[in-house]
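As the next step, I wrote out a protein sequence along with its fold in token form, included below for the reader:
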Amino acid sequence: MSRDKKNKNSFTLIELLVVIAIIGILATIVLVVLSTARTKARDARRNTDMHQYSVAMEMYYDTQKPPSYPDIDNNAVVIPASSTALAPFMSVVQLDPTNSAGPPDLRYYWTDTGQPTTRFCVWGLLEVPTTATYVLANPTGVKQTQTPPTVANCYSL
């Protein structure tokens, strides 16, 4: 009788393996959800950064006599980490959360679109959409577009 009682109070190897498998499946699901949440959070930061660039550029513009934007590169260049072009309104320039040359290229770019001091454009690539979507800031505001920004079209997007 003591032998039957002992077997009733213990788990079989199969039961333990099933429980471990269920825990493994749940852990995998949680990791996938967290990965998606991190990606969406980086995209939210990219949107916020573009808004900050837009505000800093407009504040810079308003304080200059005559009004002008900073004279940044005419070509689309990666924003250097040490740039002080927007000081004091943005003493430390914002870089992409991953700042990865990719692919995909997840860095921020800026240009004055070939018209120094009268225009600017800053953009970065979002991660979440299945089609390439860019978030950009220019004097007309901050917006998202699926058209890849270039020096020639950035101001008109």
In short: The chain has a mean pLDDT of 87.
